[in-house]
Write a structure and sequence with these properties.
The structure is a single chain. By secondary structure, the protein is of the alpha/beta class. About 30% of the residues lie in helices and about 25% in strands. The chain is built from 10 helices and 17 strands. α2 packs across α4 and α2 packs across α10. It is globular and about 70 Å long.
Length: about 325
């Protein structure tokens, strides 16, 4: 039997444990795994692109446990009343190859992405940061807000989305959750006075969601919008005047904001900041950019956290996923 966390049970687990507590738990798991970054197998995600979107596999292993996530990104799904991103994940024992754990990863990916953003901001944003501009208020926005509140104490939000219904949704969902929300009339309006800017848009095209004049001294920019080759959110001029931090360069050069730069442009791997090998923020006037595209180790961390916290509880169920004949050489015998 393999333990499985369904969407229903993931929601129940969040209600039982509390969203911000889980976000902090996943963030702690990510930090611990980033500190042992060099132990992991690493490769860019494996994509299958189509006209309407992309389906990807994101694998990694620390030598004892193997994990992967299946995830899609289909921006036009929203016009069909469907999610633009869905996913599930698996952990397996390296020694035997047997799967050990299976989980939904649509909700879990939203939580791990938010937790990763907060981890990066912990190391890169100014310590007095209290105001965040959210450019894009789709499915990821509420999770981002709660992660920044839990880890950095950010409670003032300035939001803007080209879709007014998305902002309506965000304000309704966040009512009574300890935030002060200002609804901007434009991106320019929303970023005024922000310490942190999170860009989280989904369109798979080169765009300038943030222009050069919107990125002031001391800002931390959290660029997390759905990434793929040819998709960007930041004006190249912002990158040229900022210190840029990434997860796995080989993947970020393909899908991240740094697609716009020459390959010899200096970037820093975030794991080196988390271990203390490299300094992150060097002063209050520095502009920092976390060019996040999501990486398999983050999913590995999230899956391990959820497996540990739900194992042998009402939030995980056994599923009959493996064929286990009494005689390993007689698989056919199971049919009789």
């Amino acid at each position: 039997m393999v333990q499985f966390v369904s969407v229903e049970n993931m929601v129940a687990f969040i209600h039982e444990r509390g969203l911000e507590n889980i976000l902090m738990g996943i963030a702690g798991e990510i930090e611990n795994d980033f500190k042992r970054w060099e132990q992991f197998e690493k490769q860019p995600r494996i994509p299958s692109h189509s006209e309407k979107g992309v389906i990807e596999l994101m694998p990694t292993s620390d030598g004892e446990t193997y994990g992967f996530k299946y995830v899609n990104g289909h921006p036009l799904n929203r016009d069909l009343g469907k999610q633009t991103v869905t996913g599930f994940g698996v952990l397996a024992d390296v020694e035997t190859g047997y799967p050990q754990f299976l989980s939904e990863m649509t909700i879990l990916t939203a939580m791990r992405t938010a937790a990763m953003s907060a981890v990066a901001a912990k190391h890169l944003a100014r310590k007095d940061s209290k105001t965040m501009a959210m450019i894009g208020t789709g499915c990821q926005a509420e999770f981002q807000a709660h992660a920044f509140k839990a880890m950095l104490g950010v409670t003032d939000l300035r939001i803007y989305d080209i879709d007014g219904h998305a902002m309506d949704k965000f304000e309704k969902n966040m009512s009574g959750r300890g935030f002060t929300i200002y609804r901007g009339v434009s991106t320019q309006d929303a970023v005024i006075g922000a310490d942190v800017i999170t860009t989280c848009t989904a369109d798979k095209a080169r765009a300038k969601i943030l222009t050069d004049n919107m990125a002031g001294q001391g800002m931390h920019i959290n660029a997390i919008g759905g990434d793929c080759p040819g998709k960007t959110e930041l004006d190249k001029a912002i990158l040229m005047k900022s210190d840029i931090f990434v997860e796995y360069p080989e993947q970020t050069w393909i899908e991240g904001e740094i697609q716009q730069l020459d390959k010899d442009h200096p970037i820093t791997e975030l794991w080196q900041v988390i271990t203390g090998d490299v300094q992150g923020r060097k002063g209050d006037s520095q502009i920092t950019v976390f060019d996040s595209v999501g990486f398999a180790i983050e999913d590995f961390s999230a899956l391990n956290y959820i497996m540990r916290e739900t194992q042998d509880t009402q939030f995980a169920e056994d599923i009959d996923l493996l064929a286990l004949p009494t005689d390993p050489k007689n698989l056919f015998g199971m049919l009789s």
